[in-house]
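Worked Example 4.2. Consider the chain below.
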Amino acid sequence: MDLILLLTALLLARAVASLVRAVVARRRQSQCYLLDYVCHKPSDDRKVSTEMAGDVVLRNQRLGLPEFRFLLRVIVRSGIGEESYCPRNFLEGRDREGTPTHQDALDEMDEFVDAAIAKLFLKTGLGPRDVDVLVVNVSMFSPAPSLASRIVTRFGMRDDVAAFNLSGMGCSAGLISLDLARNALQTRPASIALVVSSESIAPNWYTGTDRSMMLGNCLFRCGGSAALLTNDPSLGRRAKMALRHLVRENTAGDEEAHICALQREDGDGRVGISLSKALPRVAARALSLNLGRLAPRILPVSELARFVAGSMCKKLLLSGGHATHGLKINFKTGVEHFCIHPGGTAVVEGVKGSLGLDADDVEPARMTLHRWGNTSASSLWYVLSYMEAKGRLKRGDRVLMLTFGSGFKCNSCLWEVKGYMADKGVWAQCIDEYPPESITNPYMEKYSWVNDVQGDTLMF
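Applying the procedure from the previous section yields the following structure tokens:
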């Protein structure tokens, strides 16, 4: 009898040990690590100076003085400096109606892809045939074969690579692609995913006079990013960061949210992206919903308890009022760095106010906007690169990425720094110049003559 009990105990112990090993192995497999990333720096001959920006705006012969003044005000308030980049067809004057071609869009993508992906492979020591999953997102350009297929062909990737191509997802597509890659890796043990993010600017210049559709011409610039992810524990030991949480919010079920950032035709049949006046309100709602789901996952119990207690007290003391009015969760109790989508000055300032951040917290986003402009889905990686170039990311630090996009979507994720991060990357040649003591606006002096046309003062 004792022998039977002993054997039973041994079998149970072995079974428990096997179960524990299986759970640990599964958990390791479900981990998602960032091996490295690269942001694209176009050649210097594609920079958009004040002179160039003014020339491009003036090419639209349909603009009257009110529209011209409106565009200048948008440019001045955009927060973008003089060293962002545009497609070559803009520089060559081929952005006029009817002249951008399909090849212009392909050339823009190829120049980015060839440089960024090759550099990423060189940095990591990995090659195209090591990639098991490929996710590509470019919102405004969807050729056939897809851009994902184009990358597979250009780099000679394996026949069994799982390739995904996303379009129409807007500025939030970077984190959507990250989520897709993470999910794909969970079904493939010890695998590698390549995530490629960019936007097609070359064929998408709006040539009409609808103010809601003219804004995009002033805000978007060329750029792109490529990142290598893995769930392989052996590779994870050399990873820069580990993905801890990712939350996606899609408010497209609400009609106002769905149409606040919409590609459409104007009254004259010219296509562009319309940004409605409801956008700030829609974005604030999406942000609130997203953070409401994210906060319990990343913040300490003490901070959550403080917020709940404060809400209850206000509800008791202020009958009929909003319980949480003036009361905010302190996200700094669970996050050291904030990687905010630099969609524009209003976007950055809006998030700053909503989260109760200070100027240092939003400095990376503001400087990214100034240097690179809004590069759509790849923007977050430029912000992260700024933090790394400044040497601010220490092992164990937590980084919150937050982005918005048409739909309307608000996505967020939390990274934990695992390895040494001090690569200056795409900021190498200019990081010491940031942040400047003051950001001057060259458009003020350059276009002051507009004041004399009507004799009034532009409300910059």
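The CA atoms of residues 37 and 227 lie 4 Å apart. The radius of gyration is 24 Å. Compare this with Example 4.1 before moving on.
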